[in-house]
Amino acid sequence: MNPLDLANDHPSAARATAPHRWQRGRALLLPALLLLAWEWASHRDAAMAYAFTPIETVLATLWGLLRGADLWINVEASLARTLAGFVAGVAGGIACGALMARSRLAARAIGPIYHLLRQVPLLGLIPLISLWFGTGELAKTLVIVLASFYPVVLNTFEGLSGVDPRHLEVAALLDLGPWRRLTRVLLPAALPSILTGVLQALPFAWVSAVASELLFTAGAGLGGMILNAQAGARMDVIVVAVLAVTALAALMNALCIRISRRFARPSSR
User: What share of the chain is helix, strand, coil (3-state, %, to 5)?
Assistant: First the structure.
């Protein structure tokens, strides 16, 4: 049987395919229109050509930076900074959330401070961070740590607080000590919630890393690359750096979605 016969035998499948193709085409329509508008603006006059660098110039700059070392040095610096702050923030967040979930005294002592600081935008803490820790690597990393810390604390606390009481009863029957109860019963039961917090923290860490590089200009990084290009009136380099930030953010988002689906699969059975 040929495909035409199949389509005739299953008209509903053919009808379902057409809207799907239209949706995919419509999703590409806006980016295409934006590119056309950008190209049109870049050829109007000198001022517009500076603000909207011609696409061919951006592509040539992108190719040159990909072949050179400058872009890769800055990407590596931003990723390394993000990883360091992310790991520290996640570790501290899990420890703090677990402490508040398992100790009423800790929840009463730490909880109000945590919820108070969580309401303050990170940008509002920048002046204090720069005053106390300077504008170097430590200040940048601390911004990333805080961005990663908040969602992990909340999800760890909620995950451990919501553990089924029957699990705790089984742990009591087995006479498990506090450490074994935490590692054998509580953390495995709270793992989905903790993982959600970790996956939420990753994009926050990346955005905060680039923002900290824009605010604290010392050292390599994509944020510093953008500022240097702005000082040198290199709009093409700025566009390439922004594209690099966006591409890496998209990769991290895809990674988070893949991991969350991987861990959610067994629970749906």
Answer: 85, 0, 15
How many angstroms separate the CA atoms of 52 and 1, rounded? 54
Pairwise CA distance, residues 94 & 198, whole Å: 9
d(CA 181, CA 35): 57
pTM of the predicted model, to two decimals? Answer: 0.79
Tell me the CA distances in angstroms from 24 to 21, 30, 35, one per residue in order.
5, 11, 18
Taking the domain 59-268, which CATH number applies? Answer: 1.10.3720.10
Q: Could you tell me how far CA 151 lies from the centroid of its own chain?
A: 12
At 10, is the secondary structure helix, strand, or coil? coil
| Interacting residues of 121 by C-beta distance below 8 A, sequence separation 6+ | none
How far, in whole angstroms, is CA 195 from its chain's centroid? 14
Distances (CA, A) of 31 to 38, 62, 156: 10, 19, 39
How deeply is 213 buried, as exposed, middle or buried, from its count of CB atoms within 10 A (0-12, 13-18, 19+)?
buried
Q: Indicate the pLDDT class of residue 268, thresholds 50, 70 and 90.
A: very low
- Does residue 192 have a pLDDT over 70? yes
The three-class DSSP label of residue 90 is helix
Per-residue pLDDT tens over the stretch 219-238:
888 999 999 988 888 888 99
Please tell me the distance from the alpha carbon of residue 110 to that of residue 95, in angstroms, as a whole number.
12
